[in-house]
Amino acid sequence: MSRSGGPNWKYLGIGLVLVLPMLYFLARGFEFDPRRIDTPLIGKPAPAFRLPVLGGGERGLEDRAGKPAVMNFWATWCVPCRQEHPLLQQAARVYGDRVEFTGIVYIDTEEKIRQWLGPGGSVYPILIDDRTRTAIAYGVSGVPETFFIDRDGTMIEKYNGPLPAAYLKAMLEKLAGPG
């Protein structure tokens, strides 16, 4: 307040000049889906890799035999990964003859992976990225993250967080056609 008891317009004006731009950028942030993070890999060849498979052997992107692929990065310490795992297993049972599913475990141990999967194991191959080189090549910022690759090996989509069932089904139908 000024000496006359009214508002001090100078300080009010300075405050508005500082606060209004911040409010604008905050409001703009609400327009973006935080689970859909653009990646420079979209529309480009997916990075090649070769990783050990849980249970023995090695596997890489080139082993998909011309099929489109769903690659899911996950970890045993990730709660959302536990929630999405049954959905991916079911999708692999339905689409596995037309789409190559691969789980890539990020920053974890083989013992913990076996415990987490339980006696039933997994419907699709589980690869171990113990040095995180593949995760870095794909730009993984956290788990779960899922990548969709067409039959030519081009990355067509990336999804951060647990996959919604309707989204996964739409992507699988886009990759493989209706079942």
Would you summarize the structure shown here?
36% of the residues lie in helices and 19% in strands.
Structure description:
- With 179 residues, the protein is α/β, with parallel strands linked by helices.
- It is built from five helices and seven strands, in the order αβββαβαβαββα.
- The strands form two sheets. The chain has a five-stranded mixed beta sheet with strand order 5-4-3-6-7.
- The longest helix has 21 residues, at 9-29.
- It is elongated.
- The model has no long low-confidence stretch (mean pLDDT 88).
Low-pLDDT runs: none
| Structural class determined from secondary elements | alpha/beta
What string gives the helices and strands in order?
HEEEHEHEHEEH
Into which percentage range does the β-strand content fall? 15-25%
Number of strands: 7
Q: Rg, please?
A: 23 Å
The number of helical segments is 5
The averaged pLDDT comes out at: 88
Strand order of the largest sheet: 5-4-3-6-7
